[in-house]
């Protein structure tokens, strides 16, 4: 079978929301009013740490699809002031967040044990607060949230091949700025981080053969598999990858912005930045190339995301190993496209309702596990009880 990105069709039930006249969709989706609707109609569980588990009304997959959002919509009314990555949340919230992640991922692996039958992934996408609210493709909810998704691999095999030039697929690494111009120093910077549970792995072992993705990204195998996610040390190392990415991103775009800039203040690994990045000719020449382009091309300069924007994934490869990877984010692309899965959502209430009972049954099962672990209380909606 030919390897390549797949485009699947996922039906959804249209959401009966009235968006005020003169207000853009993404502006409304960031409002407290919309978050109240999300909780009341699709909320599954909430806890005192303001973490909300909910059904994805506009989902990627009707096999299994849920999210946890750090719901600060009532406590922080300014959408640009809300936390958009794990490094910005209170420690107690992060501990609950990590435990919820571990339980949901364990459930997914248990429910879908065969890597040939299901593509399982969990991931966080940075909702970069430097994006203007009115820009096309800005994330619809500007708050930190994780995705938990399972795709039926037979559906992927039967799906049409996606256009490899689809701009939403370029985040996979083959066209991204980091990989195109400084892949070696990018890998070297991550290799300098010290891990015990995470083991840097080859591109071939991290790739999903059916789609050929991810492409060119640093990746790590999780020693111990799903059981390792029960260890605090795993989540410390998972955060180290994010911190390393943030350092690399900030160091690079600081150089783009200001020639010969020093190590950015507040860096997590300042010695690594100094010795590996700022003394690397490829790194510095790439910054010059982007800086020169910004000076002469207003449209290109406007598209630069000056603050760290990323996608970080835990997914299962073809051999059944759990893999962690991280990628530069770009406007418009979905987290699934990092693995070569393009989702075309279509409004079709009848088709969605056929899949809904089995989907909701699984969502309520995983909710029960979270409640038993003292990670929240159930929410009652028109579709399920508390």
Description:
The protein has one domain (6-172, 194-228, 308-378). Helices cover 37% and strands 18% of the residues. It has 386 residues and is of the alpha+beta class. The strands form two sheets. It has a ten-stranded antiparallel sheet. A three-stranded mixed sheet has the order 7-1-12. The chain is globular. The termini are far apart. Helix 7 packs across helix 9 (281-296).
Summarize the structure.
The chain is an alpha+beta fold. 37% of the residues lie in helices and 18% in strands.
Q: What is the succession of H and E elements? A: EHHEEEHEEHEHEHEHHHHEEEHE
Numbering strands along the chain, what is their spatial order in the largest sheet? 8-9-11-10-5-6-4-3-2-13
The total tally of domains equals 1
Helical content stands at 25-40%
Mean pLDDT equals: 88
Question: What are the defining features of this structure?
Answer:
three-stranded mixed sheet, globular
Write the layout of secondary structure elements.
Layout: E1 6-12, H1 25-29, H2 32-42, E2 43-46, E3 51-55, E4 64-70, H3 91-111, E5 118-125, E6 145-152, H4 153-158, E7 160-161, H5 177-191, E8 198-200, H6 203-206, E9 219-222, H7 232-257, H8 270-277, H9 281-296, H10 298-303, E10 310-316, E11 322-328, E12 341-347, H11 349-372, E13 377-378
Parallel strand pairs: 1-12
Antiparallel strand pairs: 1-7, 2-3, 2-13, 3-4, 4-6, 5-6, 5-10, 8-9, 9-11, 10-11
């Amino acid at each position: 079978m030919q390897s390549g990105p797949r485009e699947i069709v996922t039906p959804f039930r249209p959401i009966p929301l009235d968006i005020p006249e003169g207000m853009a969709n993404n502006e409304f989706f960031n409002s407290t009013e919309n978050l109240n609707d999300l909780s009341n109609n699709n909320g599954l569980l909430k806890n005192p740490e303001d973490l909300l588990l909910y059904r994805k009304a506009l989902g990627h997959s009707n096999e299994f699809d849920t999210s946890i959002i750090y719901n600060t919509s009532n406590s922080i009314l300014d959408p640009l002031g809300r936390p958009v990555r794990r490094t910005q949340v209170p420690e107690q919230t992060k501990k609950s967040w990590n435990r919820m992640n571990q339980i949901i991922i364990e459930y997914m692996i248990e429910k879908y044990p065969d890597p040939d039958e299901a593509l399982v992934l969990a991931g966080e996408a940075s909702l970069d607060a430097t994006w203007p609210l009115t820009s096309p493709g800005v994330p619809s909810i500007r708050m930190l949230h994780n995705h938990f998704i399972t795709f039926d691999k037979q559906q992927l095999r039967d799906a049409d091949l996606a256009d490899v030039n689809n701009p939403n697929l370029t985040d996979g690494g083959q066209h991204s700025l980091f990989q195109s111009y400084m892949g070696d120093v990018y890998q070297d910077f991550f290799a300098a981080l010290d891990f015990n549970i995470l083991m840097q792995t080859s591109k071939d072992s991290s790739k999903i053969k059916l789609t050929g993705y991810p492409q060119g990204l640093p990746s790590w195998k999780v020693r111990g598999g799903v059981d390792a996610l029960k260890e605090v040390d795993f989540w410390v190392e998972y955060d180290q990858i994010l911190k390393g990415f943030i350092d690399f991103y900030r160091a690079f775009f600081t150089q783009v912005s200001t020639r010969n800039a020093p190590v950015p203040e507040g860096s997590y690994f300042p010695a690594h930045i100094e010795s590996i990045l700022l003394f690397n000719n490829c790194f510095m020449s790439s910054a010059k190339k982007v800086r020169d382009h910004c000076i002469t091309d207003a449209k290109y300069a406007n598209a630069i995301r000056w603050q760290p924007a990323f996608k970080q994934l835990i997914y299962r490869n073809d051999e059944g190993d759990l893999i962690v990877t991280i990628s530069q984010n770009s406007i418009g692309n979905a987290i699934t496209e990092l693995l070569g899965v393009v989702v075309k959502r279509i409004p079709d209430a009848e088709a969605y309702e056929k899949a809904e009972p089995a989907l909701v049954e699984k969502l309520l099962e995983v909710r029960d596990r979270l409640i038993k672990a003292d990670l929240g209380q159930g929410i009652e909606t028109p579709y399920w009880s508390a």
